[in-house]
Amino acid sequence: MSTRVIHLPKLERTAITSEQVLRVVLITTTVIVMTLFFIMPLVVVFVNAFRGGLGAYTAALSHPHTLAAIKLTAIAVLVSVPLNTLLGLGAAWLVTRHKVPGRSLLLTLIDMPFTISPIVSGLMFVLIFGSHSLLGAWLIEHGIRIVFAVPGIILATTFVTFPFVVRELIPVMDSLGSDEELAGVSLGAWGWTLFRKITLPNIRWGLLYGIILCTARAIGEFGAVSVVSGHIRGRTNTIPLHIEVLFNEYQTTAAFAVASLLTFFALVTLIAKEIVMRQVHRKNDQDSSVS
User: Fold this and answer.
1) Are residues 84 and 31 in the same domain?
2) Residue 195 half-sphere exposure, CB side, CA atoms within 13 Å?
3) What is the pTM for the complete model shown?
């Protein structure tokens, strides 16, 4: 008995000390990794962006080619994100509210842009709509140009970013079920009224989260857009492509100045994502307390 009294406190102190050491090691490792891979790159981008002074920074952002790249990126985002929002809502509704044959195959097709390399995605559009294809030749004869033009960039961006909205909505709609919607139908609600009054309030945070991710990917998409754009300055270069051109021409300060825009958008996306996640957790906590 005396032996147990003597050694148990030592074992407890040893266990506590080991736990503290493990906690310190994990925290230190996390801080080092975050500093090396996240904080330092951000600092480097902004330091190099303002290396030439505020005048050089504003000159790089106000250059006609930079403004054209910003405009084209905005067009691609403003078209692809709303389109993917509508397509995502329709696909999620179809998968979760109807017993469609080949559901697994449909989910696989939805995930296809995630599994295919963006370069291959862009090459796919070139093979379909390029001048050497039957469809592309016919379109060019009728004055419609897809590849190496704005429509091709929009198509490539839409394809690559398609899964983000639908993949956020499917788990949410699966977990909610269709009881409230069926109750609304029994009370006479149909169509837009049913969606606006019942479905949308329940999925709004998942939908907003998907839109944020879709927008972030659309702004920064490089691979697929690079293949279909043709790298025509002032016409088919988006912001990431314009940064590549500047960097390859050793215009480092201008390249980092334009890159700071993408970095700023990334930080805004992270803040918006965090706000949405807090709202989701708050809603879940409220639902748990009510139940």
Assistant:
1) no
2) 7
3) 0.84
Measured CA to CA, the distance from residue 86 to residue 207 in angstroms comes to: 11
User: What is the average per-residue pLDDT within 154-178?
Assistant: 91
Does residue 175 sit in the same domain as residue 215? yes
Task: List the Cα angle 288/89/286 in 5-degree steps.
Answer: 10
**Structural domain tally of the chain?**
2
Task: Show Cβ contacts of residue 276 under 8 Å, excluding neighbours closer than 6 positions.
Answer: 205, 208, 209, 212
Domain span at residue 19? 1-49
Query: pLDDT tens for residues 226-284?
Result: 999 988 888 999 999 999 999 999 999 999 999 999 999 988 888 888 888 887 777 76
Contact 90, 96 (CB under 8 A): no
How does residue 215 score in pLDDT terms, banded at 50, 70 and 90? very high
Distance in angstroms (rounded) separating the CA atoms of residues 20 and 30: 15
Inter-axis angle of helices 118-129 and 134-141, nearest 10: 60
Residue 240's contacts (CB-CB under 8 Å, 6 or more residues apart) are 220, 221, 222, 225, 226, 262
Query: Quick check: 277 and 268 in contact, CB under 8 A?
Result: no
In whole angstroms, what is the distance from residue 165 CA to residue 161 CA?
8
Amino acid at the residue 251: Q
